[in-house]
Amino acid sequence: MKRTSFSRRLSIRVIVLVGIIFIVQLAVVAYTTNKLIAEETERSTQHMLHGTIGEIELPLGEVEIATSTVASLVTSMPDPATVATIIRRTVEIDSLICGGSVIYPTPDGIKATMSYEDSTGTVHSYPLTGGWTEGSWPQRCLSIISQCRSPFWAPPYMAEGKRSQRVTAFCFPVFRVVDGDSVLQSVVTAELPVDWMDEKCKDLRPYPNSLTTIACGDDIIGIDDSVLLLQIKAAVMQDTNMQKVVDDMKRGEDTMRRIGSGANAGYVVYGPLHNGWTLSVYCQYKDILTRASQLHIFLLILGAIVLLLLYFTCRYTIHRMSTPITQLSDAALRMAKGDLNTQLPEIKSSDEMKHLHDSFVYMQNSITEYIDELKTTTAANERMESELGVARNIQMGMLRTDFPSNLSALLVPAKEVGGDLYDFVRSDKYLYFTIGDVSGKGVPASLMMAITRAGLRFVAGVDQTMDRLMERVNVSVTDTNSNEMFVTLFMGRINLENLHMEYCNAGHNPIIVVPPAGDPYFLKSKPNLAIGLFEDFTYQAEELDLAAGTRLILYTDGVNEAERADKSLFGNDRLLEWARLHATRRSASDKEVVDSLYAAVQQFIQGNTQNDDITIMSITV
Amino acid sequence: MDITIKNEGEKTLVTLDGRLDTTNADQFQSDIQPLLDLQKPDIDIDCTNMTYTSSQGLRIFLSLQKSVLARGGKMVLHNMNPQVKEVFDITGFSNIIAIR
Fold it and tell me: For a FRET experiment, which of A526, A590, A614, B7 has its CA 20 to 30 Å from that of A508?
């Protein structure tokens, strides 16, 4: 598995967190600024619109005044030639008016005189006579006047004469009263080129995709970019708000509406001119917000760069700060491999890292001390074990193994050293023998055993009764016993000539007598106290005559109290049963008998730990 | 080995239950400590349920006995089962410790 470094993981988390905060912040800023910019732009567009309306209305008003002035002259000077001259003169002097005419409806048809200024500034006048086709300008003009009977601005049209100019005209009707009826006498018109209005519309173009138009009834001024118009028309005409815009315009409202959606989302600002036309500006939000969007993208890129820098800075810093952890970890590994004096990194700060370092130093010292202590303890233990081994050798050396043919013994301590003992001495015709068991086990018992053996050796061969001998041993042991330890001891002496046995049992297990004929039995003895307790205790000896071939089995409680895992004991019954089966065989040597009992005990405990010293002795007479 | 110690007037009643062997002899030694602190001990020990005692157990009984006698008191072991009694008999402890 690939390990991701701590610094990397932490850095990534920091970056993700900061990144999320940054993006949310940017989104809020973008949303708010877009909204504010849109609102501000809508307002400013409305101001611009009003300014342009004023700029357009001013010359229109001048033309209206000029036309109405001429018309009033027509009323007072009915001579057509004079009127034509006035009109020509007006065209010549008025910089705005590019053409003018007076149209008379007569019973013979329409009569009109037209004056216009060509591109060089020369004014031409000519009568418009005959050949009027349906739909021609004078005819349309008259037809409108007959309906509305008031001055009006004509929608743009291609100028008459040798001009290729779109114009609009202010038409002023002159009425006279005939028989009480108001009859149209003539119409005075003043033409105004449309191109300056186109220019005005182009000037009012806040953004590349903005579209400014003047709606003059069914016609539109300000449209020369037909491709753009088509595109925008296609996008916005389907919008439900567009109809509302059209309705507003018809009512002459001065307002603003948002139209379109997606990329074509935008708004229309519109306001009426006094002559019923409507000036409108359509702007797309994407134009307006282009700068803002660019700013946002710039911020985004800047943010990304900052985040990237932050990531590497974070990683570097965290890596630098966590380097001690890596070093401490390596040090721990080296310590684990046994290099306890390994160099620890230096920590200059006084933060958690320092704390960790100090703990480490403490641990290093503790472990070093602990190991030293362990070494000392182990050495002490080894020394003690070795000493115990020596002690065991010494103790085993105290036990005689130079058995005569009619005697054999075995001593197996539960620990290195034990508290059991046996001994035998041949003196003249006597065989002295003894078996004993010190209370407890281990070193204390073994020392007591050594004392007891010394006492025994001291009295062996002394010509006294067994009870006196036992008392002497008791005194010598009690003298040195301040610890309430005691020794059970069986001591016997057989006269090998007549097989008379004297014995004294100081609290020891009864020995087994295996007569040459008959069943083995426990040799009952008087209840003497174990030795080592009361130095003035009086012991009682007993006597027994043995038949030739009698076998004596002596043992310590490690035999009859040998214990299995289930706590059941070997017991006296099992012991006697063993004697019946194995000790009665005449052919068996004493060694074989001893080994047989030991094997029986081992078999009984089934591998359980031997919990007491075992001593067995067999004597055959 | 479970040991219960109760005071009944002047007498102290002790009940022993279980085996007293090498593994718990030290524990037994500390369990009977209260008995060694009595001013004028008159101790009855009920051994009905004591199933076994090792030589170390005997030693503890002996030291208890010595301590009791030194303070001019008395101590009696009751209802000892035959196997345990046999150990006391064999070692001669029956001669120096009162058993009924």
Answer: A590
